[in-house]
Structure formats: C-alpha cells, structure tokens
Q: What sequence folds into this?
C-alpha cells in the first residue's frame, strides 16, 4: 500500500472515530423520540426518568443559588429606585390595606401594607408546618418555598398555600390553627358559609389508559372542598370532569404548542371561583354554586356543575396562559391575560420582542358575546408583563389592582384613564443596594378595619 493510500485510510479512520459517537447519539435520540411519540415500551420509564431529572435540576437551582442575581425569587430591577412606594394619587387611589404574599428578604411571608406602602404586619409560616411536611419525607426548603392563594379573616387569621405541600390557617400571631398536607397549589377561596374551595392534585404514576392520549405519570388536578377547620368534604377530578363531558380537546389539542408546556401537567389549573347569585342571574349557562376553574395549559376557563361534576361551559382562545378569572356581579368576567411566550421578554430592559404576543394585559369582557369592554396592556412606555402567576382585583371604587409577579410590584389602575394611581415595589433589603425586588405571588385589598387586630394580644398559647 503506497503512502497516499495509507494517508487516506488513516484520515477515514479518524473521521469515522469522530463521527461514530455522534451517529450513535443521533440514533439513540431518534429511537427515544420514536418511543415517546408512539408510546412504545419503555416510554413510561423514560418519562419518569425525565420528570425526576427536571425535579432534581429545579432543586439544584434553588440550593445552588449563591447570589441575589441567580436567586429564583429575586429580580434585579431599579424601577422603584429602592423605594417601596412608587406612585400614589391620593384622590383616586382606593385606600384600605393590602395583604400581599411575597418573597420577603429571606423567605416567603404574608405582609399587610398600608396606603403608603408601609409594612403594618407580617405573618410567617410557623415551624410546626414545615416539621409536619418534613415528617412525611417531603423535601422543603424554607428559604425558597412559595406561598400563594390566601385569605385574610377579620380576626387577623390568614389562609394560605405552601406550593404543592399543603394548605394552612394561622392566627394573627402566626400560630398554627391547622394544616392540611397535600399537593395544594395556586388558589383557595372562602365561601359565604366559611367552607373552603382549593386546588390540589393527585399524581397518577401507574394508570395507563385512564385518560386516553395522556400517558402516565401525570398530574390530575382536583378541586377540594374543605370545612372551615380544614377537613376534606369532597373532591372533584378535573380530568374526569373534562373527559366525561366530552371536552378532551382542551387538554389534548396543542399540549406541546409552547416550549414550556409540561407533558405531565395537561391542565395546570391556577384559579377557582364560586359563581354568585348576581352573576348567575345574568346568564343561562351558569347557576349559583357552580365552580369556574382556569386551565393555564389549555388557555381556557371552564364552568363545572356542582351536582353532576361535569363541565357545562368553556371559553378558550381569548387569552394566553391566563390567571385569575373573576366573576363580576354585572355578569362580566375580568382576567389576567399573561400573553406568555418563551423568550419574548427582555427582563433587563423590560421590553417585549416584536414577534411575540405582546405585553401582559388585564381584560374585562362579556362572556356571552366575548366582546372586550375594557383592557389595560403594558407598553414600552409603561411595561407590564409576567410570564407566570399574576393576579388582579376590581376594587369597590372601580379601580383595578394587579400583581406583576416577575416585576415584584403591585399596581392600582384607574380604568377611566388607564393611569396607575398606586404602585408598590417589594424591595429586598441588601445593604446599600437599591436594585433588588422580590416576587409577589398574590395580593388582596381590604377595607382599613381589617387592620384592627394589630396591637391586640396573641391568642392563648401563641407567641
């Protein structure tokens, strides 16, 4: 063999040695993709491994956050200039007190805010709750665990959710009244009779075929009805309600439409509302006591009949990755429309990419005609955007309060002019720094007399 032939052979061997690993990796990828796409064995085991890996990666991100810049609940922003109260128009702002669920310097807490943004009171999740969680063998990090879905009672008690860990009620001094462990998430509402409606979930790991075209393991979100003391009265499976009602398309169509979609979370419920008499009187499709549930993954809201536990009405297409639909007494629905799309928002400059769906917006619309009656949408001049969470409340004077979670702020809007008349930033205190704010998950405005518990002695047995 001459020198040229040897050289060519040597080059071919080198090329093959380099390409072979790539070829094998590509082949393995294609085989894995085919297994998952056509649900061939062992697709269930592969799905479990992927989900476990994502969970481990998330906890690693939390535990390895060594600075404020890489902390998942702290935002680098100089929008507020280090001041809690950004804007206030005393003639137009509603006033009252605001209960906010926030990342408060080192962990999530619940804060009561005055009209000037001052902190009037703070509730912390007591150690007894975390001890119960840890006793079940569940992983929980007190410095990272989100709190959401709350209610302030006139006594100063608060109801809240530790995300996917449980539902709790504590008194005004943060003493534990009760704790209900479970995969509770996002929202809990107190009904007129004092009972509680909350969102939770079951994790279906080994039920192939239970819901056609949704391969386990996956979450089945449930609506839970509890007594005022936290005892479970009934549960309604959302997937069961959707499938038995013939609304499967809500959780199947486009479940991979967005890169951030989770295949183990086909519905992703994030809000529950109880239909009142006034709203029901204006619509043939609703009855008092029905339950409205927001399905983020389906870009839809659904109405569930309490008696039959079936979906009786649904609306989709008007919003993207929405949160917090509220049923108004005049028959309208207001909603936080996130307009989420991966990679669309530049957090440093607070601008939205031109090819995206635009800034987040607040809508008020007629559900019968789907006609939008009012909207407030962020802009380059007045940025307003959060890809996750978000919350709003129509106040007694008609103003609209909104939580911009990923900006760490709460705003109040005059809907007649769409001007911001009150603005609060959740400032994270770190020495001389004035460019850090913490996440705000929810906020609720109450009349000033809800602060009358401040200064009273703690209930017996509490510190």
A:
């Amino acid at each position: 063999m001459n020198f040229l032939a040897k050289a060519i052979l040597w080059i071919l061997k080198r090329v093959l040695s380099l390409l072979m690993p790539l070829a094998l990796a590509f082949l393995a990828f294609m085989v894995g993709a085919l297994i998952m796409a056509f649900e061939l064995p062992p697709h269930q085991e592969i799905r479990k491994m992927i989900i476990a890996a994502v969970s481990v990666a998330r906890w690693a991100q939390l535990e390895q956050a060594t600075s404020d810049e890489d902390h998942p609940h702290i935002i680098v922003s100089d929008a507020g200039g280090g001041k809690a109260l950004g804007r206030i128009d005393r003639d137009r702002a509603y006033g009252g007190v605001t209960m906010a669920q926030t990342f408060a310097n080192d962990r999530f807490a619940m804060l009561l805010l005055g009209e000037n943004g001052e902190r009037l009171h703070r509730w912390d999740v007591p150690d007894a709750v975390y001890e119960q969680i840890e006793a079940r063998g569940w992983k929980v990090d007190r410095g990272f665990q989100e709190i959401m879905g709350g209610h302030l009672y006139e006594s100063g008690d608060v109801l809240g959710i530790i995300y996917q860990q449980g539902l709790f009620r504590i008194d005004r001094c943060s003493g534990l009244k009760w704790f209900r462990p479970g995969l509770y998430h996002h929202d809990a509402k107190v009904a007129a009779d004092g009972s509680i409606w909350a969102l939770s979930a079951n994790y279906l790991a080994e039920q192939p075929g239970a819901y056609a075209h949704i391969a386990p393991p996956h979450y089945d979100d449930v609506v839970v009805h509890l007594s005022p003391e936290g005892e479970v009265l009934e549960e309604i499976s959302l997937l069961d309600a959707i499938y038995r009602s013939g609304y499967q398309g809500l959780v199947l169509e486009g479940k991979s439409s967005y890169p951030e979609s989770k295949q183990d979370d086909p519905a992703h419920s994030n809000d529950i509302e109880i239909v009142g008499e006034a709203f029901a009187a204006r619509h043939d499709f609703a009855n008092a006591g029905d339950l409205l549930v927001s399905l983020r993954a389906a870009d839809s809201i659904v109405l569930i009949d309490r008696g039959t536990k079936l979906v009786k009405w649904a609306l989709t297409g008007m919003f993207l990755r929405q949160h917090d639909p509220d049923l108004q007494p005049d028959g309208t629905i207001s909603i936080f429309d996130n307009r989420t799309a991966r990679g669309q928002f530049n957090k440093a400059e607070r601008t939205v990419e031109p090819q995206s769906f635009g800034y987040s917006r607040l809508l008020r619309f007629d559900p019968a005609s789907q006609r939008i009656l009012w909207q407030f949408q962020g802009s380059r001049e007045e940025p307003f955007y959060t890809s996750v969470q978000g919350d709003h409340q129509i106040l007694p004077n008609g103003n609209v309060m909104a939580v911009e979670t990923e900006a760490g702020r709460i705003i109040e809007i005059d809907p007649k002019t769409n001007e911001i008349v009150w603005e609060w930033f959740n400032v994270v205190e770190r020495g001389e720094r004035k460019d850090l704010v913490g996440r705000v998950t929810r906020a609720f405005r109450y009349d000033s007399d809800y602060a009358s518990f401040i200064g009273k002695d703690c209930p017996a047995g509490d510190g």
Remarks:
- The chain is about 15% helix and 35% strand.
